[in-house]
């Protein structure tokens, strides 16, 4: 198994990171993160620093109403209207 690391430079300002940068909460209030060209500004998203390839799987723990998990290319658009 391999632990993925969340990329703080991509973290949307409506997300709060906690528990040693391993848990994300959508808090609907802008956080004072510094501007960064890789930061998502439209959608509540964050990327991992590491890439995955070939056959792999994810183990994710979540609680609450729901969660949205996706796999994307690094080239995904980060700026929107």
Automatic annotation (TrEMBL):
Residues 1-53 form the SPRY-associated domain. The keyword Aminoacyl-tRNA synthetase does not apply. One of its GO terms (molecular function) is zinc ion binding. It comes from the Eukaryota. Keywords: Metal-binding, Zinc, Zinc-finger. The keyword Zinc applies. SUPFAM superfamilies: Concanavalin A-like lectins/glucanases. Gene3D superfamilies: 2.60.120.920. InterPro entries: B30.2/SPRY_sf (IPR043136), ConA-like_dom_sf (IPR013320), E3_ubiq-ligase_TRIM/RNF (IPR051051), PRY (IPR006574). This is SPRY-associated domain-containing protein. It comes from Cirrhinus mrigala.
């Amino acid at each position: 198994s391999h632990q993925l690391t969340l990329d703080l430079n991509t973290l949307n300002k409506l997300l709060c990171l906690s528990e040693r940068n391993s848990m994300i909460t959508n808090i609907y209030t802008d956080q004072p993160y510094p501007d960064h060209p890789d930061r998502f500004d439209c959608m509540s998203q964050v990327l991992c620093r590491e890439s995955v390839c070939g056959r792999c799987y994810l183990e994710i723990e979540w609680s609450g109403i729901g969660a949205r998990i996706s796999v994307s290319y690094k080239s995904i658009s980060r700026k929107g209207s």
